[in-house]
Amino acid sequence: EVASGAAAHAAHGRHLALLLLKVAEGGGGGYEIRDERALRRNARSYDIEEAGRSKEEVARDLALRMIDEFARQSGPLATLALAPLKRQGVWSNRGVEPSGIDRTVVECLHRSTMGVDHDYRSVLTHALRTALADGWGGSRIASVVGDILFGTPQPVSGQVNLGVLGENTVNIVVHGHEPVVSEMLAVASQDPEILESARHAGAEGVTLAGICCTANEVLMRHGIPIAGNFLQQELAIITGAVEVMVTDVQCCMPSLPDVASAYHTEIIATSEIARTVGSTHHRFDKDNALESAKDLIRRAIENYQRRDRAKMVIPDHRTPLVGGFSVEAIRY
Fold first, then answer.
1. CB-based burial of residue 329 (10 Å sphere; 0-12 exposed, 13-18 middle, 19+ buried)?
2. Residue-level pLDDT at 28
3. What's the whole-model pTM score?
4. What is the pLDDT of residue 138?
5. With 90 as the cut, is the pLDDT of residue 178 above it?
6. d(C-alpha 146, C-alpha 19), whole Å
């Protein structure tokens, strides 16, 4: 179980590190380094020289260092050094410092295979080591790169609950974990051409809302409202007001297309590794990300005209909130 969770979260970090490398090499497909201060600050924490160098040069070195964290075969992860010194000492004294993220997950599966590790203390120790490969490995890398590419979050006001869905707007719900898709949808949803297309279809505009962890990504950087949490993903569909639910990876229930079949809602899966029976698979092209995001929104606009208002019930519940409390914001 720990290996599975670590593999999933670490993959999030790997995808972002690879995207950072692409951006640094001039092939970002519309993505860019939005927070250069975060880039240089984190480069220094990895002992990468940044003074007097271009942000692209620094980003390339940082991305390669992070990608090496997955392939490393010996020695503790460099990312562990981002933790408080006292905590690093605890890990070292207990012998739970992970080496490469991928190696640690694979060894976890090896130990738990029939006939290998029979000592509960040994199994538990490696479970903790694998958890650290996730939390202070892949997940920490994902947070660092997310701030560099999409901006370090600052306190922002927003709203939460199903009442954020618009009665007369094209409603798109983003669901999953990876911010690569949702970030570009946030940009595309403000495009004048897209807004004009929505008005031409009889809508007042486009409402983008989040479910689950993707919701937090777009809230803390854009103030985009949260439609609900993991337990509300099916409830968003049965409002009858969602044109498209865009999923990527993790936490997306396989029941979503079954629930959507009673409504006009289209479930669109965008990841190659996360297929759902009954959903529409639409590969999100990171090399042409903005146009790919616009294509998804155009599908939602086209679907708006199929909405059955006799089935539509949007609860009148929404709560104001403030998100975006990054470490940097809290210190400020």
1. middle
2. 79
3. 0.92
4. 95
5. no
6. 10
